[in-house]
Each structure stands twice: as structure tokens, then as C-alpha cells.
Design brief:
amino-acid transport; transport; globular; alpha/beta; ATP binding; binds adenosine-5'-triphosphate
Length: about 240
């Protein structure tokens, strides 16, 4: 168990098997399988357009699923509506940062409470003190980093057992990336992270899956991938700085 934790322990086993999905009749994913143990952290990596966002969107029920299963703690989610998947414990922070610009920070957070008491908002402010300082500001007045914190905090207020993060660091200054990754590293829950900043993603994750053209082309421990320049070059076209 991690110390200084936020979230749920012992739950969040995510099993994805043979997922074939896309947009309408257009197939993007073909037979994608991976398992993340409860409390595990998976980095889902690959070049642009290989299907990373589509994978997360399929898990939360926003694409057309043609085959395959998605099970969270043994509960099959594949045929449930998105709202029921969220209720079953799947949290999602989309690439678009779901922030309501016309609502204040606090009002945005309230939309994530899902019936929990208002006092739970303190969890969000404890994780991201900056949101506490900005609680009366409008969502549209926030910096990119603050919007991302708000988007993550709102997803966490729903008490997910597995959190899906789509490129949370996109467009953020390095110091804000540091802060966000530090906060995420304190979460004690299953996480699937899609991220272009490969070095940060591999430092955060225990395991990694590389996608190429909608298929899993490599799966293994994150630390091994980090030290395998040929693997990174092959699947991402990049080499990490030593
Ligand atoms: N709504 C859509 N309708 C049809 N095709 C789509 C739609 N959204 C994405 N695609 C296509 O699906 C493929 C996979 O896209 P996806 O966004 O999942 O990739 P990605 O790996 O997340 O890429 P990136 O790193 O650029 O975000 C791409 O070829 C993309 O053009």
C-alpha cells in the first residue's frame, strides 16, 4: 500500500480482453488486451493516431465496441452506458479537460460529487491547494495547468477505483507538469495513463503497453522499456535522454 494515499485500496482490477472497436463501422482497435492489477499503473503509449484515445474512450463507452470485454473488479462494463461505468468505478479525464468555463471552480467540483456531501470538496483542495485559492474564479479564467488540476480533481471526487488519464500534461509548463505528476503519484488507485511525455509516463507507471495501428505490439514492465532505446525507437520513433 502506498503511503499518504488518496483513494481506494484493494480494488480496481481492470481486465481488457480482445477489444475491437472504432467509430461506427470504422475499426480503430483490433483485439486489444491488457490487465492492470488493483492499484497498478499502466502507461499506454504509441505514435500519434495509433488508437490510445480511442482505447480510453472505448473503456468509458464513447465509441462503438464490436467485440471484447472490459471488466473492473470482475464486473463486465462493456454493455453498460457511460454513466453506469462511472458508477461502477471508472473515472475519466479526457484530453479536452472537461471544465465548465461558465461555472466557478467550486461549482465545477460540485458536479463531480455524485451524491457525496459537499464536505468532500476538501479532498480536492487538499490534493490541489491552488484550486482552493481559486475556488471562486470562473473555469474560463484558469490557466491550462489549473484547468487540468480541476479536471483531475473532479474525476477523483467520484471516488473511482480506476482512473483513465488522456494526455494530462499536454500544453503545460514543466514546473506544472512536475506538480501534477507529484499529485498523481500520491493516488492509490488503478491508473491508465496516455501521455506524450514518455519519460514522465514511464517514471510514473509500473507497466507499459505500446499500441501500433490499433493493436498491442509490446507489453512489459515500465522500467525495462525506459532503458530499452531500441524498443522506444521502434514504437515511438524517439530516444529518451540518458
Ligand atoms: N470520431 C472519429 N471518427 C473517425 N475516426 C476517428 C475519430 N476519432 C479518431 N479517429 C481516428 O482514429 C485513429 C486513432 O485515433 P486516436 O485519437 O485514438 O489516436 P491516439 O493514439 O490517441 O493519437 P494522438 O496521440 O494523436 O492523440 C486515427 O486514425 C484517427 O484519425
Amino acid at each position: 500500500m502506498r503511503t499518504d494515499e488518496v483513494g481506494t485500496t484493494g480494488k480496481g482490477l481492470l481486465r481488457v480482453e480482445g477489444l475491437t472497436a472504432g467509430h461506427g463501422k470504422t475499426l480503430i482497435l483490433e483485439g486489444v488486451s491488457f490487465t492492470v492489477p488493483a492499484g497498478g499503473r499502466l502507461a499506454l503509449l504509441g505514435r500519434n493516431g495509433v488508437g490510445k484515445t480511442t482505447t480510453l474512450a472505448t473503456l468509458v463507452g464513447q465509441t462503438t465496441r464490436h467485440a471484447g470485454t472490459i471488466a473492473l473488479d470482475g464486473v463486465e462494463l462493456g454493455s453498460l452506458a457511460s454513466s453506469a461505468r462511472a458508477a461502477a468505478g471508472l473515472g475519466y479525464v479526457p484530453q479536452t479537460r472537461d471544465v465548465f468555463k461558465s461555472l466557478t471552480v467550486e461549482e465545477n467540483l460540485v458536479t463531480g460529487l455524485k451524491g457525496r456531501p459537499r464536505s468532500a470538496l476538501e479532498e480536492a483542495y487538499a490534493l490541489f491547494p491552488r484550486l482552493g485559492e481559486r475556488r471562486r474564479n470562473g473555469g474560463g479564467e484558469l490557466s491550462g495547468g489549473e484547468q487540468q488540476m480541476l479536471s483531475v480533481a473532479r474525476a477523483l471526487l467520484g471516488k473511482p477505483t480506476a482512473l483513465l488519464l488522456d494526455e494530462p500534461l499536454e500544453g503545460l509548463a514543466p514546473v506544472i507538469c512536475d506538480q501534477l505528476m507529484e499529485a498523481l503519484s500520491r493516488l492509490d488507485m488503478t491508473v491508465v495513463l496516455v501521455e506524450q511525455q514518455v519519460d514522465r509516463a514511464l517514471d510514473f507507471a509500473d507497466s507499459v503497453v505500446f499500441l501500433d495501428r490499433g493493436r498491442v505490439v509490446h507489453a512489459g514492465p515500465a522500467h525495462q522499456a525506459k532503458n530499452d532505446a531500441a524498443l522506444l525507437e521502434r514504437h515511438l520513433g524517439v530516444a529518451l535522454a540518458a
